[in-house]
């Protein structure tokens, strides 16, 4: 008899990933790679003023977070952080860079950096907003 129960998140995640890795290898002949993460911070002296985080997995880098202190916006800091991350991604042999953003956040910013919209999800993360998925 099958039983369903709540278990530790990390334990469950490891077990699920093992199933998915085995399926990928069986279905495609390509073994899974271990994702790596990277993070770049920007400082004005000792003051943290912005940063970007991302992870590399196989031939793809996903930008997970990018933010700049409001006092430093419009000075090109966000662009410089993105370029730093893209250069790092390329050094790790990434062929694709992905990101997602909300309509009230930075969609046009990424489009100015040659990202194109792959898809959108209206009323997500909450009603009245749209989540955009972009790639370069």
Spans of 5+ residues with little confidence (pLDDT < 50)?
Answer: none
Number of helices: 3
Shape: globular
Describe the main β-sheet briefly. Answer: 6 strands, mixed
Q: What's the pLDDT, averaged over the residues?
A: 95
Question: What separation lies between the terminal Cα atoms?
Answer: 47 Å
Spatial order of strands in the largest sheet? 1-2-3-4-6-5
Helix content: 25-40%
- By DSSP, the count of extended strands is 6
Structural summary, described in words:
The protein has 136 residues and is of the alpha+beta class. It is 30% helix and 36% strand. The protein has three helices and six strands, in the order H-E-E-E-H-E-H-E-E. It has helices at residues 9-28, 77-91, 107-112, and strands at residues 36-44, 47-57, 60-68, 96-102, 116-122, 130-135. A six-stranded mixed beta sheet has the order 1-2-3-4-6-5. The protein is globular and about 60 Å long.
